[in-house]
Amino acid sequence: MATSPTNPSSRAVGTVAIRWHGHALELLDQRLLPVDEHWITLEGASSVAQCIRDMVVRGAPAIGISAAYGVALAARHAGGGDWKAEIKQAIRELAASRPTAVNLFWALQRMEQVFHECHSLDEAVGRLASEAVRIHEEDLAANLAMADHALGVIRPDKPISVLTHCNTGALATGGYGTALGVIRRLHEENMLQTVYADETRPWLQGSRLTAWELAQEGIPVTLNADGAAAAILADGHVRWVVVGADRITANGDVANKIGTYSLAVLARHHKVGFMVVAPSSTVDMSLASGQDIPIEEREGTEIREIRGVPLAPAGVKVFNPVFDVTPASLIDAIVTEKGVVHNPNITGMRELFG
Ligand code: MRU
To answer: What is the pTM of this model?
Structure first.
């Protein structure tokens, strides 16, 4: 059997949420943060798919990386009979875990391409593990490059405050983060006054994950209810709203965590910059506009209760789309590792992504 490639998380910057050990994948259970830091060990693609569905791991790039490791595990633990059918089934199962973040399908496509080139199970075990590690490492490198590009756009001449939504940090990526990577870089350059972190109802990625991640590293964070964002922007202290993305279409529309669209409207109204930071693995040039993006709806219990404690009348009807689409016209810059698309539209997107 091929030896397993090294664990990219050992080179990560900041918090680590994904650890690869060759025979097993370890995921930090993000459902339990910030109270418990509990790791789950997975040895099969089905359990990886389950963890993606249940949000043990979440955030577009982290979902793609985990799915890639899931395919590597499927090869590693294939029964030896029809190993090709087993790996194909694993890819199908992983692809069905969550619908909106295109990074999942992008990563699976890369894994599938390598799988098709393999002539034996032994070869597949080695090459699929290497490809998954490469996807993980490339994401970390992309985050560092995006932070450089974003600073070139923001050009801070004195410390500034920014507002962010959801969690786009090391927990959501291969390390460092997309929007949160930019915020990290501002802090490293002594150019950050504070980050306003939307709590991000209903799953609370902002309060449970972003505030935790930033506090761990001593980065100044101020947590606010989502509904406070308008008042914060009206106050005039925030220069940029910086967010991540789950899918960016050919015309520059962006799907991201529910509530992002309202922030973009607010930012435009208050003449605050609106920046989307995402790796090119989030770009889906096959979709013409945001209207074509499948938007995940999750269970009503996420809104009706928190950890079993009721917050609403039992059984009340709930609308729980977990992403929304921000039209390109409200976005000032889309920052990727390949460069920046200013005032995105189909021409600008084509120039960078073909
Ligand atoms: O439902 P989640 O937590 O997976 O949603 C995450 C987001 O919407 C993030 O903003 C996005 O994936 C970018 S993560 C770098």
So the answer is: 0.96
Kindly report, residue by residue over 240-277, the tens digit of the pLDDT.
Answer: 999 999 999 999 999 999 999 999 999 999 999 999 99
Per-residue pLDDT of 103-125, as tens digits, reads 999 999 999 999 999 999 999 99
Average pLDDT over the chain, rounded to an integer: 96
Overall fold of domain 8-141: Four Helix Bundle (Hemerythrin (Met), subunit A) (1.20.120)
Closest protein CA for atom 8 of ligand 1:
257
Cβ 96 vs Cβ 58: under 8 Å = no
Which two three-digit tokens encode residue 296?
A: 């995940």
Nearest 10 degrees: Cα torsion 177, 182, 183, 184: 60
pLDDT band of 11, cuts 50, 70, 90: low
Distance 264 CA to ligand 1 centre (A): 16
Report the C-alpha gap between 65 and 106 in whole angstroms: 10
Asked if 246 contacts 255 with a C-beta cutoff of 8 angstroms, the reply is yes
Give the burial class of 62: count Cβ atoms within 10 A of its Cβ; 0-12 exposed, 13-18 middle, 19 or more buried.
buried
CA quadruple 142, 222, 228, 310: dihedral sign: positive
In this predicted structure, the answer to whether residue 217 has a pLDDT above a threshold of 70 is yes
Q: Within 6 Å (CB) of ligand 1, which residues are found?
A: 58-61, 101, 166, 168, 172-173, 178, 205, 244-246, 256-257, 322
Q: Indicate if 153-353 has the same CATH topology as 8-141.
A: no
- CATH (residue range 153-353): 3.40.50.10470
Q: What is the ipTM of this complex?
A: 0.99
**Percentage, residues of the chain above pLDDT 70:** 96
Extents of the domains making up the chain: 8-141, 153-353
Instruction: Give the residue, by CA position, lying nearest to ligand 1 atom 10.
Output: 244
